[in-house]
Write a structure and sequence with these properties.
Blueprint: H1 11-30, E1 35-36, H2 50-56, E2 58-65, E3 70-79, H3 82-95, H4 100-114, E4 117-126, E5 142-146, E6 152-153, E7 157-160, H5 166-171, E8 180-187, E9 203-210, E10 213-221
Parallel strand pairs: 1-10
Antiparallel strand pairs: 2-3, 3-4, 4-8, 5-6, 5-9, 7-8, 9-10
Helix pairs in contact: 3-4
């Protein structure tokens, strides 16, 4: 190992960096973009469908400081879309033995909310604990919902989940003791009357950005 501090870096560090970069490039080249739809309407899901729907609407990314060989921020977010909410209620109702009337009322309420709010369930971890608290004054990160034309929406509610429930730990597998948990809420319609996600949008981005770096989570959308 190079211990002289001459700026050339150690062979081991260079090899690790090359290996990580190579794996990332291979993964990016082989991965097939997942498209999802914001279309409304009835769904015929069973409780067993929840995992597949969760995977379709969940994204994970990280910002890596190559010069320091460390992660800056690791983020997983689930977009609680119309489709996701339907699958969630079906699974929740089965697990908790809800009677049909209670299940239907829960479904009506959450689908009504889907028309006015875009909700995200977020877990994240960063090198600086206090700065990773999105709801704290010392947070290093600004969170934005970005449409294809670059217009941005800020969250109207940002809640830190201090003690995730048993249901949250089961239904959102990214919840661990090493991550902070948050619920983010964006308005479906901005103050100027324009939609946060236009009907013809081919993607939407949830961005975490600040002086330390940037992480973009992207959902590719079908018309």
């Amino acid at each position: 190992m190079n211990a002289r501090g001459d700026g050339r870096g150690s062979p081991l560090r260079a090899a690790v960096a090359a290996a990580v970069l190579g794996a990332a490039l291979i993964s990016a080249g082989c991965a097939r973009p997942v498209e999802v739809s914001l279309a409304t309407g009835p769904r015929s899901y069973t409780p067993n469908d929840y995992h597949d729907v969760y995977e379709r609407w969940t994204r994970t990314e990280q910002d890596f400081a190559w010069g320091q060989m460390r992660d800056v921020l690791r983020v997983t977010a689930t977009f609680e879309s119309w489709e996701f909410r339907w699958a969630y209620v079906v699974r929740y109702a089965e697990d908790h033995s809800l009677v049909p009337a209670a299940r239907d009322e829960m479904l009506r309420a959450t689908l009504d909310d889907a028309g006015t709010h875009h909700r995200f369930f977020v877990t994240l971890a960063g090198d600086y604990f206090r700065e990773s608290n999105l709801a704290g004054r010392a947070s290093a990160w600004r969170v934005l919902l970005i449409a294809p034309d670059g217009t941005q929406s800020e969250p109207i509610d940002l809640e830190r989940v201090r003690r995730p429930t048993a249901a949250q730990q089961v239904y959102f597998p990214s919840v661990t003791s090493y991550r902070e948990v948050f619920r983010l809420v964006f308005p479906a319609t901005r103050d100027d009357g324009t939609p946060a996600i236009p009907p013809d949008a081919d993607h939407v981005i949830l961005r975490f950005t600040g002086a330390r770096g940037r992480v973009d989570l992207r959902w590719n959308l079908r018309p």
